[in-house]
Amino acid sequence: MWPLVPLLLLGLLRPCAAGALLTQCESPTDGTIYKYQAKTLNGSHTVNFSDYKGKSVLFVNVATHVRPGNGFVPNFLLFEKGDVNGKDEQEVFTFLKNSCPPVGDSFGNPINRLFWEPLKLNDIKWNFEKFLVGPDGRPVMRWHPRVNISEVRAGIRKYLLELYTQDIFD
Fold first, then answer.
1. How does pLDDT run across 45-85, given as a tens digit for each residue?
2. Judging by beta carbons within 10 Å of its beta carbon (0-12, 13-18, 19+), is residue 70 exposed, middle or buried?
3. Among 132, 126, 114, 134, which residue's Cα sits nearest to residue 55?
4. d(CA 10, CA 61)
């Protein structure tokens, strides 16, 4: 089967809006994640996402307080904190959001809760919103933060199985 590389990018809160809690990313957006990069959490080196060519990657906007330590040892790469919405958002998140329809149907009450401008319909809603990127570097699925991780896992497994069986029969 295709390898799945779990990848978490740290970011500040970012919203998104518009209906379903899972969307399929079939946007005609040009490009791939391969032209982007990020620094590791400790800043020791920069990782080019082109290193993940041929692999499926899960991007997750995690809470800024999630850090290794106190017995927590992640089995995935964590990247430094950065904006996922607003005028200073990281370019890879701009690409991901433009490639997938928004999830959820509102930001809730944005008064005194949202800390970026400008607000956009496809902004990341909250911590733990997820994007699955296929082995071709293009986004495949986007999950709302409230989606149970078991549903995310099932969606990823289904995608990988379809990808694997497609390769066998092609």
1. 999 999 999 999 999 988 665 566 677 677 788 888 888 88
2. exposed
3. 134
4. 6
Q: Parallel, antiparallel, or unpaired: how do β-strands 37-39 and 56-62 relate?
A: unpaired
The residue type of 125 is: K
Q: How many helices (H) and strands (E) does the chain have?
A: 2, 8
- Give the pTM: 0.77
**Amino acid, single-letter form, for residue 120:** K
At 146, list the tokens: 């409230």
Distance CA 38, CA 71 (A): 25
Mind listing the domains of the chain with CATH numbers?
A: 4-169 (3.40.30.10)
